[in-house]
Amino acid sequence: MTKKQPIKAIKKRKSDLLSRRPHRSFRKTLRRDYKRSLKLPGYFAFSKHVRQTLWVNRKTFILLAIVYALITVLMVGIASQDNYTTVVNTLKSTSGDMFNGFWGNLGSAGLLSLTAITGGLSTSLTDSQQIYAGLIVLLTWLTTVWLLRNILAGHKVKLRDGLYNAGSPILPTFLVALLAIVQLLPLALALIAYGAAVSTGLLNNGVEAMLFWVADGLLALLSVYWLSSTFFALIIVTLPGMYPYQAIKTAGDLVVGRRLRLLLRFSWMALGILIVWGLVLIPTIIFDSWLKNIWSAVNWLPIVPVVLLALSALTIVWVSSYTYLLYRKVIADEASPA
User: Fold this and answer.
1) Whole-angstrom Cα distance, residue 241 to residue 144?
2) What is the pTM of this model?
3) Domain residues of the chain, as ranges?
4) What per-residue confidence (pLDDT) applies to 127?
5) Would you state the pLDDT for residue 99?
6) How far apart are CA 138 and CA 141, in angstroms?
């Protein structure tokens, strides 16, 4: 191979990329150049479609969620009941009469739910437990995608088939997941900067606070922008013979001219998950408090941690299914990238 051949290959790759992408740095893109069709059902209609697809095959996917939960308990553990009890006692001792009555109990349950959702009840995981947790999530993602792909192809499959066969692309999937973690770094920097701004009182100053929010928001938006295509890359890389770089490139082509509409779909998915978690967790916390107030012998019973584990398992299956079915809708529209 001559010295000019690698240079020609790089130039060809660049020209191919530019031919597929209508946007240019520091140059306004005309609407005629980036407008691209994307026929999707409405937000409620698509969520209903995902729910119906899972419900028709509910036995398989409920078993998958149970398997995920059991492996998580064995390899990682669940949220600590002691941590939950400590948070409850701290809230009672510091709130005074603030959370008395029905609305007070509801507010207290809401705060405890927010603490649980943000991971305030979890114990510190060791390095090995974090690796196990990541692998379990990846395998659940791969199994869900494998099952849905074969179900939509008209094949009759069992959970056993998915568990045995879905793990073959785990290495390329892991590499794409590493890219997603790298793409989260701007968001992590934004959160660190926010913590520093709160501790130093920067947000109390008008102009400085405005500039901070602009910079912080741009960092968070950068991560969201990148991840909008990486979610699809995690689906595409599961195709037989697909390489990580090719999956990332193909996913980028799919979202060109559609990124904002897809981000709205993912935002809708996140909002729905948040609402469901609140509707399940808040009554669970109220029931847990009521039961242990009248029967102290069951104070050891980890009702809330078990519900958290069940919600986590169902959420991973739902997110995987929602993303895969959205991907199927996107590839059904064969509009050119630019």
Assistant:
1) 19
2) 0.83
3) 43-89+102-332
4) 79
5) 56
6) 5
CA distance 153 to 135: 27
How far is 284 from 117, CA to CA, in rounded Å? Answer: 13
Q: Which residues of the chain have pLDDT under 70?
A: 1-37, 80, 87-108, 117-123, 334-338
- The three-class DSSP label of residue 166 is coil
Q: How many helices (H) and strands (E) does the chain have?
A: 14, 0
Both tokens assigned to 304: 């809330």
C-beta of residue 106 within 8 angstroms of C-beta of residue 286: yes
What are all long-range contacts of 247-254, with beta carbons under 8 Å and residues at least 24 apart? 247/172, 247/176, 248/176, 248/179, 252/21, 253/20, 253/337, 254/229, 254/327, 254/330, 254/331, 254/337
H or E segment at 133?
A: helix 127-152
CA distances for 95 relative to 15, 92, 231, angstroms: 63, 6, 42
- pLDDT recorded at residue 200: 78
| pLDDT for res 175 | 92
